[in-house]
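ok, trying the design again with the full structure, not the truncated one.
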């Protein structure tokens, strides 16, 4: 009989497992969830689905009498981007951004034969290399949400500027903060060349050559890897916002939001080093998407 002990125990264990799984399935209580297209926490009573888990974009509340007030990324903001470098492909509630990374302003990082080449007038040197065509692609939500936890940015592109060139953070290498010596190689646009191509770290300088980029104003800088827009240091009335979070973000009206308050970032009006102001040196408050 002892030879039958193991098969019997195995059979009993299998039956218990099946019973346990059945109990788990039976414990699932389906709930009716209502679409919340405008992300105000109130659901549309006319559009619903039932499931055990809460679907993305749906809530348990069904008291929204007008769920059509979709407040996401204003589409007019995309008109600000350099059309020679940046293209957009819209698919439902997402947009795929592709850029060559080639800016539309002058710089000493253009080859001398290029019509946009100028001599270095901002820093005291340049880093090796020239502006060349690259490839950057990212798919972003058109209705980005603030995540439950913020995400630290890493090396490489963390956003795409309106010029088409990528935005980098406040590091020049792994755990190596941008310093004055390195900043001396940035052009008036706040950019320089690196192994991954031409990119920005700083706010542009207030120089006659700067006819394209934001300087101490409300202009659009670009879009970050979590889908939120980045604007210059001021509000539309020229004042500096006083309610920014650690990343420079807040809810407010922008030049593109048609009077609606949306979450967006500003360049923080604080010197990073010396008289230099960083474009974006904090965490992303939304869910980051990889810029390839």
């Amino acid at each position: 009989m002892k030879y039958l002990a193991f098969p019997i125990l195995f059979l009993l264990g299998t039956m218990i497992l099946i019973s346990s799984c059945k109990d788990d399935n039976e414990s699932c209580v389906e709930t009716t969830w209502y679409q919340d297209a405008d992300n105000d926490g109130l659901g549309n009573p006319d559009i619903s689905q039932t499931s055990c888990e809460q679907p993305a974009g749906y809530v348990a509340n069904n008291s929204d009498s007008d769920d059509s007030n979709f407040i996401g990324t204003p589409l007019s903001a995309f008109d600000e981007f350099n059309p020679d470098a940046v293209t957009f492909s819209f698919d439902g509630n997402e947009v795929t951004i592709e850029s060559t990374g080639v800016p539309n302003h002058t710089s000493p990082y253009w080859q001398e034969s290029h019509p946009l080449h100028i001599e270095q007038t901002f820093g005291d040197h340049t880093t090796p290399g020239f502006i060349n065509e690259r490839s950057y692609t990212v798919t972003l939500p058109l209705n980005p949400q603030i995540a439950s936890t913020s995400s630290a940015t890493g090396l490489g592109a963390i956003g795409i500027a309106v010029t088409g060139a990528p935005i980098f953070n406040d590091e020049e290498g792994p755990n190596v903060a941008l310093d004055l010596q390195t900043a001396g190689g940035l052009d008036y646009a706040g950019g320089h060349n690196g192994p991954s191509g031409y990119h920005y770290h700083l706010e542009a300088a207030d120089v006659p050559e700067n006819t394209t980029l934001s300087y101490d104003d409300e202009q659009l800088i670009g879009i970050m890897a979590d889908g939120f827009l980045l604007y210059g240091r001021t509000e539309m009335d020229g004042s500096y916002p006083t309610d920014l979070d650690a990343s420079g973000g807040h809810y407010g009206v922008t030049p593109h939001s048609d009077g609606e308050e949306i979450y967006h970032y500003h360049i923080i009006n604080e010197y990073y080093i010396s008289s230099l102001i960083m474009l974006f040196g904090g965490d992303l408050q939304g869910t980051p998407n990889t810029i390839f």
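Keeping the full-length input from now on. Residues 2-26 form the longest helix (25 residues).
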